[in-house]
Structures are given as C-alpha cells and as structure tokens.
Specification:
Number of strands: 82
Number of domains: 9
Largest sheet: 5 strands, mixed
Shape: flat
CATH architecture of the largest domain: Sandwich
CATH superfamily of the largest domain: Spermadhesin, CUB domain
Structural class: mainly beta
Length: 1219
C-alpha cells in the first residue's frame, strides 16, 4: 500500500479566494470586500476599504512554500493607503511578511515582519500612495497569518525616523599588500526612532577617516530590516586593489552606504579603522625541524621533517627545502646535500610540511654532527631576510652496533601458588644503531635478580629482526612450576636469552619483578542468602539464591552448596536435604547459585530455617571449616486458595442488543496453593451484585492456576437479543460454578457499567487530507480519509466518493473525481480510504473544495443522514510551465532559463521512477547552473543524483535524499552540461523537487607541479635519465589535459634554446585533483659536459586556459659528464624480478631472483634521485629455488629510485618508482 505524507507536502494547503460567510446574526460589516494574497505571483487591487488576508483566508493558515504579493493602490487620486494590522501570526525566522512603500517589490522596503515584530499600522508615502505586501513561507509550520484593514487617507502622520550606526568594527590584519585580502566584522545598530527598512554596510578604502566620492568601494554586506534598539552582525571579505601605493589608509565601515534609509541622524554612519598598505615581502624560515633517530651509524637511513613558513606578506613562488649533513650548525660549501623536497608557491603567513629520507654518508667517523634544514636551498626566492633560512638539529654518529634492553615489564598477579599461571608482558628495545637479527625474550623464575644456571625458564617468546631504535611488545602466560616451595622469588625478563645477538652492551639485558609463591589454601563461605517466597505450604516451592566465596588462594574442586530444611540454625543429622548445586571455584573469586526448593509434603505448619551449606559433603580441605553455613527463615503455612478478578476492561461504546462487547481481565490466585480450575463467567446484570436474576453471557474455562499466579482473559460476550435499552453492568465472575473451595468466596466478582441502546448506523468522514496541492489540471493529488461507523450496529457498506466542488456543499453540480468501495463496517470501527484524484483538464484556476462523501448512493439507512460530507480546500493552478525529469528513460533540453521538476511537476512524484534529464547550455561556452528551490524525498529510498556531463556515466557530483537540499551546482565539463537522475522505490511518495536553470561562466584551471625528481643526478651524455613529476590542478575548473614537458636548460628559465627531452601525456584533470607523471629519456649524446637544469613544465604546449600561467614550471639541477659507461649487468645465472613497480608509498617492494645461479651472499641497496643510499640489506642466494626479499618503503618520499643488487658475478640495477 502506498503511504502519503501529507504533512511533508510541497504545498500543504490551498489558496482560499473567497470567504463563505454565513449566519444571519453576524453584523453587516462582515460583508465588506475581502482580499487574499496569492499563493505565488502578484496581484493588483484598487481600493479604499476592505480587509486583506494572507492566502489562507479568514479561518485557515497560510500555505507552505508561499511567495506571493499584492499591490494596493488608493481608489481616490492623491490619497495614501493605510494598512491597520489587527491580527498577525507568522513563524519567526522562517516565514516573513515584506511591506514595500510603492507599487511592486522593487519599491523601497519598509520592513520585514514576523510574530516577534508585528507591523502595526503602515502608510504609503510614495507619490502613488500604494503599498505592496508580500508573504514567503517554508515547508513546515504554517500559522494563522494576518488580517489588515484597508483605508485611504489624505495625510500621513509624521514618521519617526531610524538612526543607523556601526560599532565594533574590526579588520583581520593591520597591514596588507596591494592585491591582498582582508576580512572584517562589525555590528550595525538602529539606535532610535522606528524600524530601518534595510541595514547594509559598505566598506571603502580611504586616505582619511571621512567618506567622500574619492574613496573606493571594496565590498558590502547586505542587511534587511532592523528594529529599534536591535543590532545585527556583519562580516565581509574584500581585496585591496592591486596597484595601491604603500602608505597609511583607512577602511571605512559605512552603515546604509547606498542611502536607502531616511535617518534622524545621517552623520554617525561611518566608522574608520586604520590599515597600512606595505610593499610586498617574502621571508622563508624553518620551523619544528626534527630528525629520527638522533643516534645512528654511518650508512644508516634517517628521517627528516620540518615546516617551511613564509613570514612575509607576499606569495613565494617556490618553497623547496634542502637537507644537509654538516659538522656544525652553519651552512657552508663543505656541507653535503642529503636530499631535498620540492615546494611550489607558498602564500604569506602560511606554512607547509616537508620531509625526506636519506642515508648518513658512509665512512663518517663517530661523533656529533648536524642536519641542516635549509629553506630555499637553491636561492630561487628573493627574500627580505636571507639569514634565517637554516635550522639545525644535532645528531650523534656512533660505531655500528645493536643493544637490546627490556622496558615496561609487568607481572600479574604478584602473589600466587605453585601450578597457577602468570601474565607477563614487556617491551624489547633495540637502542643500538644497527638491526638486530633476533629479538627473543625469555621469562625465568629466580631466587634473585641475577640470571644464572639455577634459574627456571618459564616461557620464551620468539622475535624476528628488530631495527635500530625500534621496539616490540612481548607477552606470555607461563605457569609457576608445580612443587615450587612457598617463598620469595623474582620473575626475570631477559632480552636475547640465548645470546644469539652480538651486542655492544651484554650487561643490560635483564629486568626483574618480585613474586611471592604462597602455600595453597581454600576457604568456602556463604553470603547474601535469599528466599522467595518466605511463606509456603507443604508441597510448595521457594526460590533460593546465594553467593559462594572462595577466600583462599587455590581452586576448590568441587565447590558445592547444599540446602537443608531445619528447625534451627544449626546443621545436624535431623535436617532434610532439599537440593544442591555444584561447580568449581578459583581462589579469591565468587559464584552465584540459584535453585528451586520444594518443601516436603506433610511438613508440619510452623517456623523453619533453610540452611545454605558450603561443601556440604566435606569434600574440600579448608583452612576454616566453621564458616560454611548461612541460613534464611521460612514459614510453612496451611494451604490457601483465593481467586479474584482484576484489571477489568469493557468497551465504553454504547452497545445494541445482539452485539459482541470487547472485554479483558486478569484472574488471580492470591493463595499459596494451586487452584485446580480458573474459569471466568460473564453476566449481564442491572446492578453490581451477582444474583439469580443475572443473565450469563459467556463462560471461558481455565485450567490449574498456581499459587500467586495470574492469567489474562480476552473475550467477547454477546448482549442478549431483546435486551431492553438502558444502563447495565457486566459482571466478571471467578469460579462461577463454585468448583474451587476458597478461603474467601466473597471477592470473586468485579463489574463495569455499560449502556445498551437501540440499534443504529451512522457513517461519517474523519481526518480528510490532501497531499500534492496546489495542482495543475491534468495532474493528480493524493486523497485519504477515515470512514467511521459512529452507530452501534454493523453497516453493510462503507463506500466513499470524492467530488470537486466550488463550495463546501454537495450538490448535482459537483464533479465526481473518484470512488472507493467499502464493505461491512462494524459499530465503532473506522476504515482508511485513499486514492489519487486527477483534476479534469480545462478546470479554471482558482480555489475549490474536495468533498469526501460517505455512502454516496444512500444504500445504508442511517440514524443521521446529514453528517456524511467532509471537505478539504484545494488550489487549482494554471497550466504547468517547466521541464520534467522523465519517469523512465532519458531526455535532453538545451536552455539557459527554465525550471526543472521531478516527474510529478507541482505534485508528488511517482513510485518506481528511474529517469534522467540532460541539460545543455543554450549559450556557447556557458556552464549549466542549478539552484534548488525546494527538495523533499523519502529519505534513504528515493534519490537525486547530479552528474557533471551529458549522461549518467559522467563524474558524479552528489547524491541527495530526504530534505537534504542540494547546494548550488555548476557544470565544470567541456560541454557545460549537467545530468539530473531521479529514482524512487515502490512505496512512499513525497513532493519532490524543483530547481532553477541558468547558464554561468566556466571556472578556470591552474596547473602546478607539486613533486619532481630526476635520477641519476649525474650522468653521461647519451645516458638514460629517469624523470618524475606530480601535477595538480589548483584551480576551480577542470583542465582539459595535464601533460608535462621536460627540457634540458643551462638556466632555470624556459626559452627557445632549451632542448625538449620528452613529454608525458596527461588526460583531463578535475579541480583539486593531482596525478603522477614519469618518463625515461636519453640525454642527447652531443650535449657538452657541464651543469644543467631539467625544467619540468606543466601544459608545455599552452593548450589549457589557466587562471595563472606563471606557475607552471619547476627545475632540478643535473650534471652531464663526458663518459658513457657500457652496460655491464651481471646476473650470476639468476632471473631478476622486482614488483610491484611503481609501488605505493609505505608498501613493500618485492625482489625475487630465481634460476640455477651459484649460491652466494648478495646485498640490496636502494638509492634516491640524489644518489644517496636510503636502504641496505643482505640477501642470501641459493640455487634451485626462488630467492625472495622485501624492501620497506615506509618513510620514503615519492619519486624515482635505483635498486642495486650486488654480489659475486652479480651486478644488477633496476629503476623503481614510489608513488
């Protein structure tokens, strides 16, 4: 069944054009002319009297999504319109009434009003004397709106004028360069007088604190009406005009900068804030420099990171950082460049992260050195301060070695018995500067803190290789050996217990924690005993519970509890065992026990004890045998049965003779013995006492009912046919045949009064509703209502018809829209009816009523034939104007001005929709722009998807559902098109959406280089050069291509003399996206040896139109030598494979040598683009198998690397790309 959400309709209620005023007792004045605002659009009236209402009329609320206006022009020439608002209720913050001083919404705005600031009396003051009133509303919460009387006057009383001023003016910076951005905040106040119709603020650049014609408008913040004594916050973002000369200026904050408001004081509107326009400056510096590790060996890799900050006020065109190895904290020619990271433009006051990985040069003597972090290390940027570019971090170079130690050791528990397990954990640390080939930890039991041959190994946790300055967590659960004598011990945590690792310090491998081994003990006790009930008859049951505690330190097995019935609180041979519970219980723990105990039949009435006895069979040797017993008292009482009735219910509706009446009750046994029967009888009586004159209507048998038990009964006894109408009682009788002997036979009856009336049927309509209006002829609305039988007899039929009428009275002129057939309807019951109503084509626009008519054919004889009709108002609009997303399939429209709708148009959309609409711009070069005006779908099931292109295979811009209004959406593709797809499931429909289509201007792209690499940095003419570059689109629009060109140049400037080495093609690149480019090329053999630069150029052929064409290039230095070495690759009989290549940053690079080569020890070294070794590890080769190894890339920057594998008769080099 389809569900309709009427409360969520795009248009919840219709527009009422005329009020139907009835009643002879009303004053004649009520029949004066009345006017209603339109739901949408505009109307004009000429009058000097009458009453103006919102579009809901005198009695109803205004419509959802309203946006209509009425202009009132005085009927007498030279007069002015006066509006006196006598009632005003408009939702604060969401709905509003706008009043304009003139003919139309382009006239000066008098004010914006809602319930918190009602308008009172308003006059037209313009030459025409007219006023325009406009109402706007959202989709929820529609109030009663307004009532305003219309008059014409010849004079307008003097108007009290508002007074606007600015306070709290603030600028984000006090100095800025020409072309730089500013943000501002302030508050605008209306100090006195009356409401200000607008409250905008303008921002001017001035050479003094006085606003004049020479001052330059920077921007503005729009503001609406502002009541007396109120203030409103304003903020702005604007740019100092390029070319502004350095010097002192003022930013003027001007209230009512367009002079739209007449004020009592026009001289207090301007506030000035001083600002300095300074010459552009760039100053790059290093912050938060860090090196890991700070203690290492020659040849080991280190990780370096920092932030580069531009402390100037202008953008730096480059922000590269070089990392140098130095013997001091000063950069000089003797320092060695380890690596660098390229950086592109860096805005003023911004910082960016830089990092690199490089190896400490081989052969460096142990000692203290420095890593220098150098901003603009190639001196590409002219800075105001060239002396603060270097930051230094001290590091120590130590002889190579490993040193394993234990840290953070833990032991639980610290006291136990032999045979129990322990939890031990610790961290093993390699504080050396070389990788340890093993990191095993052993756990020993010792009588002291020194590891020796007498200590007992508890557990060993094996560990693989552990890099320099790395840690690893170890844990185990060893058992204290059975037979260990009680006493004081130590658990030793031992790094490298088998001495498999050669360490620089072998004396710091052991840590210890104290452990006490105790003698085993067990001590069982009972706590928290409980019985329910505590009074029971012989043969009855009581529930028992308790906690069993083991206060010792060893496990008790078994750990039993016995339950005895006793005449006293002492366990002896005369006590009767009622039951037991079993289990085991570890030391220091407890266990809850539950059991149902039956008192033996024949037990004498009296007071007893239930004894809870731990280890009741004496199977456990305990340190204390005297605390095993606890008890609870129990009363054994005579057996009692007592049946009662409670919680009775009888339908309150009047009943006719012969009708079934819905009843319910509980029958209860409040005794302590089971009742063999629990029958309930239902009697019709003239009073609340059961006697022989009462009429039995129904008996429902019931079985055994236990002590203190209840049972619910639901029955439908029938009022006897022929019963005289009047007041009666329904008697609910427990045990009506007296088959159960009870201790109390006087509490078996409960009663409820009912009314028996003459039979009758009365059909009426309840909760009529429409969803999907206003509606266009030919479209449908959803209708629903409940047809209710208010009589006391079943109606044989319950049909409902739906008519379109010009009034609220059903007559022969009304148009039948639909019918819903209904079958028999019981007394007091309702049935929901729903249907879709199609408004006939050709229906004139206006206000109508949908009449909901019960029993339209008069086939049911009713006690009241005058209440069968109910109604809902409906606005019928003019012909539909707009473009629909099709129900299924695809459609295309070329336009720059339309409104698109879901497939329902103004009404609810259809179930099972799956269609798409492609919107192409009608203007060449235009880009389709969508602004959604309303949006309401079934959340999570129905969706709108918007694609940036000509079909649904284009990039998806967004998916929207529920009331998730899509943002302004602008096409960015070369066609300028957007495709809107709408899908709905098979149930639940809603109003859908509409969106305005316009054509905008395409945003431009901006291609920049984000990461570049060249390997090797020194090569011979004719040699191979591996190049890599990251290209990013920092613009707001897509780039049609993203190619990168590579040039060999003698300087950093691209000109006609530079040699093109090659080009990496690149596809389209969306805004905010980036891509990697690689190329292996040959340096021409005729290049003269010397120092060169590789120029990396984004968009080398200038095929992409960019917002900034000056930031497309970056450069790296390379050296061309005169000798080209022959290819001497030696594989020693192996086949070499490296994969994956490229490899993702952080993933392992797998190396495999397979084949029948000779066994040998090989070495793998990884070098970066600067020729620095960043990884080195051994590789043992064996014939006849696949020799595999993995090179870690964690911490390495993306770029081109060289992997070299060397050994006897083995020399292989492979180019590797890390992305």
């Amino acid at each position: 069944m389809k569900h309709i959400y009427p409360a969520a309709s795009r248009f919840i209620t219709g527009v009422i054009i005329l009020l139907i005023l009835v009643g002879v007792t009303r004053p004649q004045s009520l029949y004066a002319q009345t006017y209603l605002l339109p739901y949408s659009g505009s109307t004009n009236i000429t009058a000097c009297s009458g009453t103006l209402y919102d579009n809901g009329g005198a009695n109803g609320p205004y419509s959802a999504y309203a946006n209509g206006s009425t202009t009132i022009t005085p009927a007498i020439a030279g007069n002015k319109i006066k509006l006196q608002f006598t009632s005003f209720a408009v939702e604060n913050g969401f709905d509003a009434v706008y009043i304009y001083d003139g003919a139309g919404v382009n006239a000066p705005l008098i004010g914006v009003f809602s319930s918190s600031n009602p308008p009172g009396t308003v006059y037209g003051t313009s030459t025409s004397g007219a006023l325009t009133v406009r109402l706007t509303s959202d989709g929820t919460i529609e109030l009663n709106g307004f009532v305003a009387s219309i008059e014409c006057v010849t004079t307008v009383p003097p108007q009290v004028l508002p007074d606007l001023t600015v306070q709290g003016a603030w600028l984000s910076v006090q100095s800025v360069v020409a072309g730089g951005s500013l943000s501002s905040t302030c508050s605008i106040y209306n100090l006195s007088g009356s409401m200000a119709s607008s409250s905008s603020v303008g921002y001017y650049l001035s050479t003094d604190a006085v606003l004049s014609a020479a001052d330059q408008l920077l921007g503005n913040s729009q503001g609406f009406s502002l009541a007396v004594g109120q203030s409103s916050y304003r903020y702005g973002n604007f740019t100092v005009p390029p070319g502004t000369a350095p010097g002192n200026y003022y930013v003027l904050f001007a209230a009512d900068y367009l002079n739209q408001v007449s004020e009592s004081n026009e001289n207090n509107n301007v506030v000035a804030v001083n600002i300095t326009v300074t010459p552009p400056s760039i100053d790059l510096t290093i912050q938060q420099a860090g090196v890991t590790p700070l203690n290492t060996a020659a040849g080991n890799p280190i990780s370096m990171s920092c932030y580069i900050l531009n402390q100037g006020n202008a953008t730096a065109n480059s922000s590269s950082v070089g990392f140098y190895f130095s013997t001091n904290a000063t950069l000089d020619a003797s320092d060695q460049l380890l690596t660098s990271q390229y950086g592109s433009q860096l805005s003023a006051h911004y910082s960016e992260y830089r990092s690199g990985t490089a190896a400490i040069p081989l052969g460096v003597a142990p000692g203290t050195y420095y890593i220098l972090f150098v901003a603009d290390y190639q001196n590409q940027v002219n800075e105001t301060n060239e002396n603060n570019n270097v930051s230094a971090v001290s590091i120590t170079i130590s002889p190579p070695g490993t040193d394993l130690i234990i840290q953070h050791e833990q032991l639980y528990p610290s006291s136990t018995v032999a045979g129990n397990s322990l939890q031990v954990n610790a961290t093993i640390v390699n504080q050396g500067n070389m990788t340890a080939n093993s990191s095993t930890v052993g756990f020993y039991l010792s009588t002291n803190t020194v590891l020796d041959a007498g200590d007992v190994l508890l557990s060993t946790v094996m560990g693989g290789s552990l890099g320099a300055n790395q840690t690893n967590y170890r844990s185990a659960y060893p058992v204290v050996p059975v037979g260990t004598a009680p006493g004081s011990y130590y658990v030793l945590f031992v790094a490298d217990p088998q001495d498999a690792v050669v360490e620089t310090n072998e004396t710091n491998n052991v840590r210890s924690l104290f452990l006490t081994v105790q003698a085993p003990t067990m001590d069982l006790s009972i706590q928290s005993v409980y019985l329910s009930p505590v009074s029971v008859a012989a043969g009855g049951a009581t529930a028992a519970s308790c906690y069993l505690y083991n206060q010792g330190n060893a496990t008790a097995t078994p750990a039993t509890v016995g339950y005895y019935l006793s005449t006293n609180a002492v366990l002896d041979a005369s006590d009767v065992l009622l039951g037991s519970t079993n289990g085991s219980l570890s030391g220091g723990n407890s266990s809850s026990r539950y059991i149902n105990l039956t008192v033996p039949a024949g037990t004498a009435i009296g007071s007893y004890y239930v004894l809870f006895v731990a280890d009741y069979l004496n199977q456990v040797v305990e340190t204390n045998e005297n605390n095993n017993l606890s008890f609870a008292t129990l009363q054994v009482v005579p057996p009692v049965i007592d049946l009662t009735i409670s919680q009775i219910y009888v339908s309150t509706a009047p009943m006719a003779p012969g009708s079934a009446i819905a009843t319910s009750c509980y029958i209860n046994n409040i005794g302590n013995a089971p009742a063999a029967s629990s029958t309930v009888g239902y009697y019709l009586s003239t009073n609340s006492v059961l006697d022989a004159g009462d009429v039995l209507m129904l008996t429902t048998p019931g079985g055994t009912l236990g002590a203190n038990q209840s049972f619910a009964r639901y029955d439908n006894p029938v009022i006897p046919a022929g019963t005289t109408p009047g007041s009666y009682f329904i008697l609910f009788v427990a045990d009506p045949q007296n088959v159960v002997a009870e201790t109390n036979e006087n509490n078996n009856v409960a009663s409820q009064q009912v009314n028996v009336v003459a039979p009758g049927i009365d059909l009426l309509i309840q909760q009529p509703m429409l969803s999907g209006g206003p509606v266009t002829p030919g479209f449908s609305v959803s209708a629903g209502c409940a047809v209710h039988n208010a009589g006391n007899t079943t109606a044989p039929s319950s049909s409902v018809d739906y008519y379109l009428s010009t009034n609220q009275v059903w007559d022969a002129s009304d148009v039948l829209l639909s019918s819903t057939t209904g079958f028999a309807l019981s007394a007091g019951q309702s049935s929901f009816r729903s249907t879709n109503l199609v408004i006939p084509t050709g229906t004139t626009a206006g206000t109508y009523y949908v009449l909901f008519v019960a029993d339209p054919q008069n086939v049911v004889a009713e006690t009241n034939e005058n209440n069968n009709v109910n109604w809902q108002s409906l606005t019928v609009l003019g012909p539909f104007a707009g473009t629909l997303v099709p129900f299924t399939g695809t459609a295309t429209v070329t336009t720059c001005s339309t409104t698109i709708y879901d497939n329902g148009g103004y009404n609810n959309y259809a179930d099972n929709s799956s269609g798409s609409l492609t919107i192409r711009p009608a203007t060449p070069g235009g880009m389709i722009q969508l602004v959604f005006n309303s949006f309401l779908l079934e959340s999570g099931f129905d969706y709108v998807r918007i694609y940036d292109g000509v079909n649904t295979n284009a990039p998806l811009l967004g998916t929207y559902t529920g009331n998730q209004l899509p943002p302004l959406t602008l096409a960015t593709n070369v066609d300028g098109a957007l495709t809107v797809e709408f899908t709905s499931d098979g149930s639940v429909v809603a109003p859908g959406f509409d969106a305005t289509v316009t054509c905008g201007v395409a945003p431009q792209s901006d291609l920049v280089l984000t990461q570049i690499g060249a390997s090797p940095s020194t090569l011979a003419a004719g040699g191979n050069l591996s190049l890599s570059a990251g290209v990013a689109n920092h613009g707001a629009g897509p780039a049609a291509s993203s190619a990168v060109g590579y040039y060999l140049s003698t300087n950093r400037v691209l000109d006609a003399s530079d040699r093109l080495l090659g080009t990496s093609a690149g596809a389209a690149l969306g805004a905010g996206l980036s891509a990697n480019r690689q190329l292996v090329t040959v340096v021409p053999g005729n290049v003269t040896p010397g120092a060169y630069y590789v120029l990396f150029v984004a968009d080398p052929l200038n095929v992409v139109s960019e917002s900034d064409e000056t930031n497309n290039m970056a450069a790296l230095a390379v050296t061309v030598s005169s000798v080209l070495l022959a290819n001497r690759e030696q594989t020693a009989g192996y086949t070499v494979a490296v994969a994956p290549n490229p490899v993702a940053m952080g993933n392992g690079l797998r190396v495999e040598l397979s084949g029948a080569g000779a066994p040998c020890a090989a070495t793998m070294d990884l070098y970066n683009a600067l020729g620095q070794r960043v990884r080195s590890q051994p590789l043992q080769l064996s014939a006849g198998r696949a020799n595999r190894a993995e090179v870690a890339t964690q911490g390495l920057a993306s770029g081109v690397y060289s992997l070299r594998i060397t050994g006897p008769n083995l020399s292989v080099t492979r180019r590797v790309v890390i992305e």
